[in-house]
Amino acid sequence: MMSDVKDRERSCLLAPGRWHHRRTVLSVVASLMVTTFVAITVGVIGWSATLPAALIFTIGSCVLVGVDLQQRRLPHRIVLPAIVAVIAAQAVAAWHQRDSGLFLRSLAGAAAAGGGLLAVHLVSPEGLGFGDVTYATLIGATLGWYGLDRVGLGIGLGFVIGAIAAGPVLMLARRRAEVGGSPGPATLPFGPALAAGAWLALCWGEPIAQWYG
Fold first, then answer.
1. Across the 213 residues of the chain, what is the mean pLDDT of every consecutive 10-residue run?
2. What is the value of pTM for the model shown?
3. How many CA atoms lie within 13 A of 21 on its CB side?
4. Of 149, 143, 186, 139, whose CA–CA distance to 166 is shortest?
5. Among 101, 153, 157, 182, which residue's CB has the most CB atoms within a 10 Å radius?
6. Torsion of Cα atoms, 190 then 79 then 153 then 112, to 10°
7. Please, what sign has the CA dihedral across residues 66, 67, 69, 75?
8. Which residues have C-beta within 8 Å of that of residue 120, sequence separation ≥ 6?
9. C-alpha 151: how far from its chain's center?
């Protein structure tokens, strides 16, 4: 009896250390993933006037994906400053290239993506949160530089990736319900799928569009 008590006390003392170790491992993995995405973005886009906006989007999206997976929300305190930073970077890039039309395309992309997902949110607020709407605005501002077709490609890829990822989750929830267990969450946060589609469109939008066309 006394040994059981001592074992429980020992496990309680070790639990904080295990949790700290787990958080350290997750932090290292997350840092490596962010570094990888940043390196790929730099390698694909190259050192150009558009790179700062691309890096802001890539790093911000990595942070938002982590938050969305853990908390199932895309906080405005991250999304809104990222939108401002991307628009500012696009303005500087347009000034550098002496082409204000490029900056206007970024604004148009932000309005189109944000407005499009806002309409979906108003129709089905439970299916699409307002955080996804503001994040779509960030996507539109980033991809709009390359044209509205690139914005549509990024958002479209996000919906496709989300639909593919949702299939196994729904099947697992149904199987758990059939055996009498807890079905667990039957939905996935949409932010990671949007981020994946937008990042693919950012880095390889032109070849993807050519292959699709």
1. 46 54 74 94 94 97 94 95 98 95 97 97 91 97 97 96 82 66 65 96 93 75
2. 0.85
3. 5
4. 186
5. 153
6. 110
7. negative
8. 127, 128
9. 15
